[in-house]
Amino acid sequence: MTTPEEGPAVQATPRALELIARLTARHGPLVFLQSGGCCDGSSPLCTRRGELLIGPHDRLLGRIGDAEFYVDPDLYQRWGQPRFVIDAIADSGDTFSLEGLESMRFVLAVPGEP
Amino acid sequence: MATATKEFTYAPPGASGSVVPLKERYDNFIGGRWVAPVKGKYAVDLTPATGQAFTEVPRSTPEDVELALDAAHAAKVAWGETSTTERARVLNAIADTIDAHREMLAVAESWENGKPVRETLAADIPLAADHFRYFASAIRAEESTTTEIDKDTVAYHFREPLGVVGQIIPFNFPLLMAAWKMAPALAGGNCTVIKPASPTPWSLLKLAELLEDIVPAGVVNIVNGPGAEVGMALASSKRINKVAFTGETATGRLIMQYAAQNIIPSTTELGGKSPNIFFEDVFAADDAFLDKALEGLVLYAFNKGEVCTCPSRALIQESMYERFMARALERIAAIRQGHPLDITTMIGAQVSTAQLEKITNYVKIGLAEGAELLIGGKRNVLPGELADGYYFQPTVFKGHNKMRIFQEEIFGPVLSVTTFKDEAEALEIANDTMYGLGAGVWTRDGTRAYRMGRGIQAGRVWTNCYHLYPAGAAFGGYKVSGVGRETHKMMLDHYTQTKNLLVSYDPKPMGFF
């Protein structure tokens, strides 16, 4: 899933990669599913591999660190198949996502921004 | 009464003269008592108004969820057998105490969430009280049914409680969303364990302080902590008989998956991207209705856009777009943003830094995909103590429905506007979304309003109104906006199960053996 002129379909900032490594060391292998909708929608959900059942229609966009990153195909289509850049910020978010335990939050950054 | 004063700012909770008493630290509410978290850890609660911490709440662990479930299970038989007369009395008493402490709860919720106090005083708190009254009435009026199968055989249908339910509350209406979930659960004879949202863990504890002497111990239990630990432990527990969740779609999937694994029912409300449709006839006269329609568009800024049904897509008939939008933008420019506890403030602060970051990024995405910024678009840095608060300017983009800012819920004060030529195109754009929670239709033509209302794939179509949330009108999603309905007595179906007694009064054997 790489277009040469644009880069990979999903990538993570150094901060996010560092957090993924830390979470992996603590919880084992991770899986991301891009969310949508209410509240903390638009951020990906990060769970232990096997916690969230990946469905037959979910699309594997790539890997960030050692973690697989999935997206619902309808959501992916409707968002215009964007490049996903995953960043991490300090936040006490309303989330089932694992990084909440570290008072951090994975968020989508805008591609091309530092 | 303070709200009648023209210029007035409530003192923040705990400050001298505040209507909200504040402790340095709060515990979990379990079994009618205040229970310290097992591991003794606490987290600070921030106010979005200033970005400063103002109290501490438990950073609980799964052990605390078990304690709450113990308390709920200990209470469930007695509460389930409590007469509906008595259950209704308790619900009405909750409503009365909410009304009696309206200002205290309104200020607490505003301070914790960042929403303007004029909204909590006028909407969140009175609606929460009314919700308990509605379900008090509904449960009194419930009747079991009997069916005469034949002359000597009768089927009796009783509604029985599910037992113990787990309820996960979102941050956008910390008290009202808790009321939406608690009231039907309690009316149906269930005990509940509630996990408030992490950014808004405290205002519900202020309500719990009022419930200590009203609700029997163990019927309502509140445990705070991270969703990834406490929310997950509750939602996946083998000791709950139902789970209810409001939030985003990925976690919604997880909740429904846990429910499937435990073979229990779930209800989920997962957001939307609600269209608000304005036909050219709203401009047929410059009258009260036009005024109402313009307000209807600006309601995207209500609760700073942090509403699952935020009317975040405005579809405006092309023939009146310029006139209508010019008037609407005047009104948006006049929105007063400021201290949430100032009663003249119309828009407050976003709930968290993550939300602020997300909104900022969506504005960049909108600009990058070629949408035209009509107003706003930036974080609003207010003076003095509010400088570090999470304020974002009311923002409007013009673009088209295929853009990402038209497809994804931004959960901020960002409106995406587009135009349509005729009714068919309006309907097509309205339904061109993954979601189907809310919609608005504005027209003076009642027949068209009906056609559109029936054609829109959404659970609630506000017709010539928006953002009304009365008990008695069913609320819930079509498509990926979730499963189940709230704020209506049909909710009792989600919180009870049917017991059928099939009784033969015929002494004769069947004759098979």
What is the strand and helix layout of this fold?
The complex is a heterodimer of chains A (114) and B (513).
Chain A: E1 2-3, E2 7-8, E3 10-12, H1 14-27, E4 30-34, E5 44-48, E6 59-64, E7 67-71, H2 73-78, E8 84-90, E9 104-109
Parallel strand pairs in A: 3-8, 4-7
Antiparallel strand pairs in A: 1-2, 4-5, 6-7, 8-9
Chain B: E1 28-30, E2 33-35, E3 42-46, E4 53-58, H1 62-81, H2 84-100, H3 102-113, H4 117-141, E5 145-150, E6 153-161, E7 164-168, H5 176-187, E8 191-195, H6 203-211, E9 220-222, H7 227-235, E10 242-246, H8 249-262, E11 266-269, E12 275-278, H9 288-298, E13 313-317, H10 321-333, H11 353-368, E14 372-375, E15 395-398, H12 404-407, E16 414-420, H13 423-431, E17 435-436, E18 438-442, H14 446-455, E19 460-463, E20 478-479, E21 482-483, H15 491-494, E22 496-504
Parallel strand pairs in B: 7-8, 7-10, 8-9, 10-11, 12-13, 12-18, 13-16, 15-16, 18-19
Antiparallel strand pairs in B: 1-2, 3-4, 5-6, 6-22, 11-21, 14-15, 17-20
What does this entry look like structurally?
The complex is a heterodimer of chains A (114) and B (513). By secondary structure, chain A is of the alpha/beta class. Chain A has one domain: Hypothetical Protein Aq_1857, Chain: A, CATH 2.60.300. Helix content of chain A is 18%, strand content 36%. Chain A has two helices and nine strands, in the order E-E-E-H-E-E-E-E-H-E-E. Chain A has helices at residues 14-27, 73-78; strands spanning 2-3, 7-8, 10-12, 30-34, 44-48, 59-64, 67-71, 84-90, 104-109. By secondary structure, chain B is an alpha/beta fold. Helices cover 36% and strands 20% of the residues of chain B. Chain B is built from 15 helices and 22 strands. In chain B, strands 14-15-16-13-12-18-19 form a seven-stranded mixed sheet, with helices on both faces. The longest helix of chain B is centred in the first third of the chain and has 25 residues, at 117-141. Chains A and B meet through strand 5, helix 2 and strand 9 of A and helix 7, helix 8 and helix 11 of B.
